[in-house]
Amino acid sequence: MSFKPANNIQDLQHFGEFGGVNPSISDSATYTFLSAKKMFDTFEGKAEGCYLYSRHSSPSNLYLGEAIAAMEGTEMAHVTASGMGAITPVMFQICGAGDHMVSSRTIYGGTYAFLKNFAPRLNINTSFVDITKPEVVEAAITKNTKMIYCESVSNPLLEIANIAELSKIAKKHHIKLVVDNTFSPLTLSPAKLGADVVIHSLTKFINGTNDTVGGVICSTTEFINQLRSVNDGACMLLGSTMDSLRAASIMKNLRTLHLRVKQHSKNAKYLAEKFEQDGLKTVYPGLESHPSNDLYKRMINDEFGFGGMMTIDVGSLDKANELMELMQNNNLGYLAVSLGFYKTLFSAPGSSTSSEIPEEEQKEMGLSDGLIRFSIGLDDDIERTYQMMNQCMKQLHILS
Ligand code: PLP
């Protein structure tokens, strides 16, 4: 039977203290114990179901973690204060001084900056490779390598990682495969394809309302417990803890994720096909022209489509800026970083979310000046949106 991530979320049941249809929100930083022994046992991890202190865990955070673990098909999940607050503890838990990682070179700019500029201060070094070439990934592994890191659909170039292939390589070398699945929740289930750790920035599609940052780490019970260890757990000790009130609010938004992803995907596919027909250089994993279209089709949970992210290249940064300003003035979307909102968001990654990547490296990886990244919104009438975008492009002579 195929994996049904949305059913897995809906099958969960947690009632509030007074029979509420939403679980009660845990509004406490610390918890009382009826006996000193119980407190000691809890510290030692020997008292099931007892809470100690909310930086470690809290009921609301556990509910959200449980729902996202069900969605990703992992044993457990741990929610964090941001996507970066999920990514960095995972790296520190797996790698120490002298260790090495192999990472995709096309990843979110913040993650890239962390690996390139921050981790080397702690003598953790990274080789950046073309993730679409598994043989190149394998060749970069050294005796000190502890993990392969990639995004399932990369930010901003929308390159697709062959997760099953990468997982085979990771297993062969006894190292972990860590996948950031932020661009493709529900659409892709990396753990089902062999990833050891799946990360999301909840800030994006999963929360979907752009009212908070948040993150999550999905993995085995063993790995999540390591992250939470009071003695040497990177989540516990680095302290990127999500607030319980926020966890409860993200939980409510998560329940409509399946509807939103389907609409984002439907709209993005419509626009990508139209833009490509108009002669624009368009990248979308659902287009046959995408180099990994076949691979992506084989990997996805079909009913959720190809996702809401696409790029076009309009030739120069000036043209890209003009177009984005004009589209914003016509209320077709917002000139803003981030993604997964009800409204379309657009930005030029070379000068925004990927600006941490030096210019010559941007060129090498194919990140051109005129690239615009779109996170397509939930527009009810996408045909009208297309017509209006087309008018903007004609007005600026991007299209004749
Ligand atoms: N991963 C990806 C793919 C992202 O696009 C981002 C943010 O843009 C992050 C991680 C970081 O997430 P956050 O901003 O929630 O820390």
Oligomer: single chain
Quote the average pLDDT: 96
What percentage of residues falls in helices of 4 or more residues?
Answer: 25-40%
In what order do the strands lie side by side in the largest sheet? 1-7-6-5-4-2-3
| Strands, total number | 12
Strand content: 5-15%
Would you kindly provide a brief summary of this structure?
The protein is an alpha/beta fold and 400 residues long. It is built from 15 helices and twelve strands.
Task: Write a structural description.
Helix 7 (163-172) links the parallel strand 4 and strand 5 (176-180). This protein is α/β, with parallel strands linked by helices and 400 residues long. Helices cover 38% and strands 14% of the residues. The radius of gyration is 21 Å and the shape is globular. A seven-stranded mixed β-sheet has the order 1-7-6-5-4-2-3, with helices on both faces. Strands 8-9-12-11-10 form a five-stranded mixed β-sheet, covered by helices on one side. It has helices at 5-10, 36-43, 59-72, 84-94, 109-118, 134-139, 163-172, 221-228, 234-238, 244-254, 257-277, 293-299, 317-329, 359-364, 382-395, and strands at 76-80, 100-104, 125-129, 145-151, 176-180, 197-201, 215-219, 281-283, 309-313, 334-335, 345-347, 371-375. The model has no long low-confidence stretch (mean pLDDT 96). It folds into two domains: 5-254, 3-Layer(aba) Sandwich (Aspartate Aminotransferase, domain 2); 258-395, Aspartate Aminotransferase, domain 1 (Alpha-Beta Complex). It contains 15 helices and twelve strands. Helix 3 packs parallel to helix 10 (244-254) and helix 11 packs parallel to helix 15 (382-395). Pyridoxal-5'-phosphate is lined by residues 82-84, 108, 110, 151, 155, 180, 182-183, 201, 203, 213, 215, 353. Pyridoxal-5'-phosphate (PLP) binds at residues 82-84, 108, 110, 151, 155, 180, 182-183, 201, 203, 213, 215, 353.
